[in-house]
């Protein structure tokens, strides 16, 4: 059916403040979320093409033994310092003004995909978490077992999630408090001194056979009196980076995905390659660049160390200012970035 003949509506959390003037909410076409104004439905034929085609970097990938370094220590959990700590893939502990956030927790193996690198300490020791920031509901970002583990050892934790993610969270952990937001909306659960906004991303949703784009996806901006932090979630390159910068101004810290980008015919609309991530960071007028979404799981065709090598080349060439490549478990203190 042609898009113009499908029922179109706009939805948002009417209880939350929308910061973009005149924005009616996320566009829903025929019952599914649009990627901005247009539907994006990943084609199964591209998956088949990928599986049947030979990776031109196959031998290079087999020889590439890169894995991120791990600092085996969780003392940062008891620190009062404002910081971020990478825990692998898109999982970060972020502490701002004494409030501790955990992004897209994934501690364990994925179905049929082994985790390539460990955590700095057992998942049960990851405590004192105030909020989960859930960018979208793909299995490598919204993981049942990791959320259950987190909640069982952090009974105070609340989830800040996209529109329509609440049904999934209720099935995972019925007692986990959550709040849903649409793009350009400000959550109202956080204490004074830290503001959290759900912002656009160029991506999609699917967990089962019949739920394509039934749950929203997005990114986060965390704001204090002296810090703007951007967590990109999963995203392709699109115009939302400029729009976010126009609303908030330059970002002090940008946490950017840089992996799972090959083959480009399948990945380009929903993931950034390192060059695109740096371009987006520059559009955000970013300060510190922290990469993520690489090295932890084998999700695509590029060699595991390629994203890091490309970023280092871009930094050496002056195209990327502020690159930081922390080990898993290595605290990055915000006071050291000022």
Automatic annotation (TrEMBL):
Ranges where the Metallo-beta-lactamase domain occurs: 102-294
A Pfam family this chain is assigned to: Lactamase_B_2
Protein name in UniProt: MBL fold metallo-hydrolase
């Amino acid at each position: 059916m042609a898009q113009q003949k499908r029922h179109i509506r706009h939805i948002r959390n009417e209880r939350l403040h929308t910061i973009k003037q005149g924005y009616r909410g996320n566009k829903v076409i025929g019952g599914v979320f649009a990627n901005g104004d247009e539907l994006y439905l990943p084609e199964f034929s591209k998956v088949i093409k990928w599986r049947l085609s030979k990776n031109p970097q196959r031998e290079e990938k087999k020889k590439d033994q890169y894995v991120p370094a791990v600092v085996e220590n969780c003392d940062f959990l008891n620190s009062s310092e404002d910081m971020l700590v990478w825990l692998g893939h898109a999982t970060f502990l972020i502490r701002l003004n004494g409030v501790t956030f955990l992004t897209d927790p994934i501690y364990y193996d994925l179905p049929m995909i082994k985790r390539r690198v460990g955590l700095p300490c057992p998942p049960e020791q990851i405590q004192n978490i105030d909020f989960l920031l859930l960018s979208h509901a793909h299995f490598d970002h919204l993981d049942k077992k990791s959320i259950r583990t987190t909640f069982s050892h952090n009974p105070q934790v609340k989830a800040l999630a996209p529109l329509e993610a609440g049904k999934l969270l209720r099935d995972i952990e019925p007692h986990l408090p959550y709040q849903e937001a649409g793009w350009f909306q400000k959550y109202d659960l956080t204490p004074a001194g830290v503001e959290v906004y759900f912002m656009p991303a160029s991506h999609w949703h699917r967990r089962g056979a019949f739920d394509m784009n039934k749950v929203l996806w997005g990114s986060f901006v965390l704001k204090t009196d002296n810090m703007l932090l951007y967590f990109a979630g999963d995203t392709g390159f699109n115009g939302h980076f400029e729009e976010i910068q126009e609303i908030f101004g330059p970002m002090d810290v940008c946490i950017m995905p840089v992996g799972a980008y090959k083959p480009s015919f399948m990945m380009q609309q929903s993931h950034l390659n390192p060059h695109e991530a740096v371009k987006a960071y520059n559009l955000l007028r970013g300060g510190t660049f922290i990469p993520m979404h690489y090295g932890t799981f084998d999700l695509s065709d590029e060699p595991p160390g390629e994203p890091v090598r490309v970023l280092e080349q871009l930094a050496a060439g002056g195209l990327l200012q502020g690159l930081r490549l922390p080990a898993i478990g290595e605290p990055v203190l915000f006071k050291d970035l000022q």
